[in-house]
Specification:
CATH topology of the largest domain: Beta-lactamase
Structural class: alpha/beta
CATH superfamily of the largest domain: DD-peptidase/beta-lactamase superfamily
Number of strands: 31
Distance between the termini: 37 Å
CATH class of the largest domain: Alpha Beta
Number of helices: 34
Strand content: 5-15%
Number of domains: 4
Low-confidence stretches: 1-28
Strand order of the largest sheet: 7-6-5-4-3-2-1-8
Helix content: 25-40%
Length: about 1000
């Protein structure tokens, strides 16, 4: 037994929490292990001992006849282990339990799972390839990656992972290692390999490094023939052997020897390393002091089976120093060959006992001294549980910006920039399109591999040359240099011709060696792989929601060496990720679906949108239900809702903050200072700060619109059923109003009574009122000398690239996508869709300080995230942080309000507008139609709920009375506070 195996055993059981005396308990466990190993070994026949040195291939996608054959090999040939390949997780668990029950000595179960179990099994999400990991600079991510693979292995009853690949891939034409390597720099391969090894072994899975002494610098596949490595010892020692030396120093449990011919290390002509005692015993065991398990590569590969017949090849591998023979072609022939060799003293029983003891210690250390049944229940869900989190984080850190002339990337979104995207070798990509569209107005083109033609490329050239920036995504690449990575000459020609006409940003969704075709492209990105995660991450990197961090693991040419990669900074745009990445407990977060389902069933609202963003990323953006209860039009994430009073904080307050930021208003001045027409009214002494905190004594609600009706009929001096020069403002498509009425209402506002003071000597008490924002709109328009909506579009919404947060949505959007807000039987006399719900805002032409904005959740989130980020978004500072703070803090002790913003409950309040978990410095607002937004800087959290609870009846208070929005908010906080790693 090797010393390191004994030490490993002691540490393993100590770490598992078997506590008592620090000095005695680990030693006792080692003694127990020795007793188990000795008792098993002493009871074995020679056939059983030989069988322990063999691991056969096993598949879980075969028939019962095949499984019976495996049963027989276990029962009668006493094989020591199985290497599972293709099949399904459920069937593999079933077979593992079956085979372990048959085995007299428990079986070591292994898998070749370099990038996770999906490498071999269906239904499992694949992890990134090793070359992608090579681009990651934070090796902690690789450790986490391997730890997750270890968790998957344990769930399946697997003890050994034949990984990591420690080959240094310094030959671009390598057909077999290729993306399975971490790269071409030996030290980097070593560092990343060690991170992977520790991730496995710290989590009780044996790591096996391969393919010793190094399979990286070959252009031959050992599966089909015997590769020759022609380098001298000095070169091998300084490059190929470096990762293996480091892995051994760090305690790797196993090494796999490749079927490689290395003349500098073995004198025999065309003799594989896997059969070489000079390479295995002299070098690996003696010079490199490796004491753990040595495995052959699969003995059914042509690189070895063409050298010797079955049985003899396995014996030579044993003699050379290998402990475990993988996948022998003929188990019976192997056992026979070994027994004959014992008779002729070609090998000794001591040789066999030494190796069997090492195998048994491995079995003991992985817990095979106690037989366990593997639980197949929900196995696929359990296996896939954390993969998305690991994957998204790795791709975010790996994707590499190779060329960036003039620092175009990340895009700064100049208003005049016209963007297009082109997908080559694939159809339209809905997910990538959706994310790109979230960041910029973009036209989309694609050309599939099946419809390529010179005529098609010429047409695309004409169309795309009209755009300032074209993002080209090159999909469906291969890893084979011999096929130029599946990139055609027409692809290359087209991309280069287009690059001469406009700015081309080329994203290669494949192996970095393929970049060599495009070294003259000014904006070049290597995405390494093509899957849903990469396609989601790339747009976020391009637009600065995420920074580029990756470094090339291999050289492209002399000008782009390994380690190249341009690092960028985040521009503070909203990204997209999984809730678990931001430490949400999904058991809690899943309750949102239940709350909303119940709300819809009870007709609290026909449908809704819910968005959650944390730490700068959207983690939840879902739509539920329908626009109306007849279930004709389903809600989607692009559906626009009437925000009602959320307009105050998404529109008017944003405009006011801009004015305050420029010293154009003083919050402690009287409003009449800016609006002289108030000086002759009872509102002359109102302070702006009091107006914004709803303690200016204004009436809470005054239905001025009723004064424009006569017995429920519209006064003809104000209204007409069709537009004319006089009746020019649309209330609905069948009702138009004269602009004169807006001035009339303003005069009515000036003449309204103020509330009675509780104490004449003190200020007015808090009383929520829309009327203050009628006045605020006047203030903004007076100072800016432009309509409120135009000011917001020019100075905030357009710079933020906000497309779907808008007044007057019917001017730009199909009504079908605008959610109706109600049925008005008195004033509008019909369904309200696309026109603002609030009556005064409607008379104002749809643009008012208190109502009028429509939005989906994501576009509204941009405004709120900018506020959460202290006034900055997309690399642009819109407000000073002090301004955000000034407006969002509580202004008075006995009034919970900020400046325009609502705040959490204070002592004395009967109502709390937010969850009791919301922090003191959080802020938000709600809207009459059922909308709600809340920002919590302490949690870096944003929550948006959009609904039309007022459809069809404005008196429907179920959403409010059942506190649906607040209950969802409490679930969100609970999910954060109860997160478990």
């Amino acid at each position: 037994m090797g010393l390191r195996w004994k030490v490993y055993c002691i540490l393993f059981f100590f770490i598992q929490g078997i506590t008592t005396s620090l000095k005695s308990q680990p030693l006792k466990q080692a003694q127990n292990g020795q007793h188990w190993v000795d008792s098993i070994l002493s009871s074995m026949t020679i056939e059983q001992k030989i069988g322990q040195l063999l691991m056969i291939a096993s598949y879980s996608n075969k028939n019962e006849s095949y499984y019976n054959d495996v049963d027989a090999l276990i029962r009668y040939n006493h094989i020591g282990g199985l290497v599972f390949f293709q099949g399904s997780p459920v069937k593999q668990v079933e077979l593992t339990n079956r085979y372990q029950q048959i085995a007299q000595t428990p079986l070591l179960v292994a898998m070749d799972a370099e990038w996770g179990l999906a490498m071999r099994l269906d239904s499992i999400i694949s992890f990134p390839k090793q070359m992608t990991l090579g681009a990651v600079t934070d090796n902690r991510l690789i450790y986490n990656y391997a730890a997750e693979i270890a968790r998957q292995c344990r769930l399946l009853g697997v003890h050994i992972n034949f990984a990591p690949v420690l080959d240094v891939n310094n030959n671009p034409d390598n057909p077999v290692i290729n993306v399975r390597s971490y790269g071409e720099i030996a030290e980097s391969v070593a560092e990343k390999g060690i991170a992977f090894i520790q991730g496995l072994q710290d989590n009780r899975i044996m790591a096996v490094g391969k393919h010793f002494p190094g399979h990286g610098d070959t252009d031959t596949d050992s599966h089909t023939s015997l590769p020759i490595i022609k380098h001298n010892i000095s070169r091998l020692d300084s490059i190929e052997l470096v990762p293996f030396k480091n892995a051994i120093d760090k305690g790797i449990n196993g090494i796999m020897v490749g079927h490689l011919n290395i003349p500098a290390m073995e004198d025999k002509v065309n003799w594989p390393a896997s059969l070489s005692d000079k390479i295995i015993t002299n070098t690996l065991r003696q010079k490199m002091h490796f004491e753990e398990l040595i495995f052959t590569d699969a003995m059914n590969m042509r690189g070895v089976r063409s050298i010797l017949p079955p049985g003899r090849a396995e014996l030579e591998a044993f003699k050379a120093g290998c402990d475990i023979i993988l996948m022998p072609l003929n188990v019976t022939a192997v056992i026979s060959e070994f027994k004959n060799a014992l008779k002729t003293n070609e090998i000794t029983i001591q040789n066999i006992n030494e190796k069997v003891e090492r195998v048994l210690w491995a079995k003991y250390n992985v817990g095979l001294n106690q037989r366990k049944i593997i639980n197949p229940e929900s196995i696929v869900n359990k296996l896939n549980k954390n993969v998305e989190i690991i994957n998204s984080e790795i791709y975010e850190n790996a994707i590499t910006l190779v060329h960036n002339k003039g620092s175009l990337i990340p895009f700064h979104l100049i208003d005049t920039t016209r963007f297009a995207s082109l997908i080559i070798n694939d159809g339209a990509d809905p997910k990538c399109k959706e994310i790109l569209d979230n960041y910029a107005v973009m036209d989309h083109f694609f050309i599939t591999r099946g419809n390529k033609s010179e005529k098609k490329y010429e047409s695309l050239l004409q169309d795309l040359s009209k755009y300032e920036v074209v993002i080209i995504s090159l999909y469906d690449l291969s890893n084979q240099a011999s096929r130029n990575y599946n990139i055609s000459k027409s692809d290359i020609s087209f991309i280069k011709r287009l690059d001469e006409l406009t700015e081309v940003v080329l994203v290669i969704y494949g192996i970095p060696y393929s970049l060599n075709n495009f070294m003259d492209i000014d904006y070049l990105i290597c995405a390494y792989e093509d899957n849903q995660y990469v396609r989601s991450v790339v747009p976020q990197l391009l637009f600065g929601a995420l920074p580029f961090k990756g470094k090339l693991p291999v050289s492209i040419d002399k000008t782009i060496p390994s380690g190249s990669g341009i690092i960028t900074q985040s521009m503070g745009r909203l990204g997209f990720t999984f809730p678990e990445r931001k430490r949400f407990n999904m058991d809690y977060l899943s309750l949102i679906d239940k709350i909303i389902t119940e709300a819809i069933q009870e007709q609290a609202t026909p449908g809704c949108q819910v968005l959650i963003a944390k730490n700068g990323s959207v983690v939840f953006n879902r739509s539920y239900g329908y626009q109306t209860y007849d279930s004709l039009i389903e809600i989607n994430n692009n559906s626009l809702y009437d925000l009602a009073s959320v307009t105050k904080v998404a529109g008017s307050i944003q405009a006011l903050m801009m004015l305050y930021d420029k010293d154009l208003i003083d919050l402690d001045k009287k409003i009449s200072y800016y609006l002289p027409e108030l000086k002759q009214t009872n509102k002359k002494n109102i302070i702006i700060r009091d107006l914004l905190t709803h303690q200016a004594g204004l009436q809470p609600y005054y239905p001025f619109w009723i004064q424009t009706l006569n017995n429920r009929n519209h006064e003809v001096k104000y209204y007409n059923n069709s537009p004319t020069a006089f009746y020019s403002i649309e209330v609905t498509s069948e009702l138009y109003v004269t602009p004169i009425l807006k001035d009339t209402i303003w005069n009515w506002i000036l003449n309204t009574d103020l509330l009675e003071k509780e104490n004449p000597k003190k200020s007015f008490t808090y009383k929520y009122s829309d009327m203050g924002f009628y006045i605020i709109q006047k203030l903004i328009e007076k100072i800016t000398d432009m309509p409120l909506d135009q000011f917001l579009y020019n100075y905030l919404y357009e710079p933020l690239n906000i497309k779907n947060l808008t007044y007057l949505p019917k001017n730009s959007y199909n009504e079908v996508n605008i959610v109706p807000s109600g049925i008005d039987k008195i004033f509008r006399k019909g369904k309200i869709r696309g026109n603002v719900h609030d009556e005064i805002a409607a008379i104002y032409g749809g643009v008012a300080g208190h109502a009028g904005l429509f939005s989906n959740a994501y576009e509204l989130a941009k405004i709120m995230q900018m506020n959460l980020q202290h006034g900055s978004y997309g690399g642009v500072k819109y407000f000073q942080p002090a301004t955000i703070n000034k407006f969002t803090i509580r202004q008075y002790k006995r009034n919970r309000r900020g400046l325009g913003w609502d705040k959490p409950q204070i002592i004395g309040d009967e109502y709390n507008p937010a969850s009791f978990y919301a922090s003191e410095n959080s802020y938000g607002h709600s809207g009459f139609t059922g909308c709600y937004v809340w920002v919590d800087p302490q949690f870096e959290l944003l929550y948006i709920f959009l609904s039309n609870r007022t459809y069809p009846d404005v008196d429907n208070r179920k959403l409010i009375d059942q506190e649906v929005r607040k209950r969802i908010q409490t679930v969100i906080y609970s999910s954060i506070l109860n997160y478990k790693q």
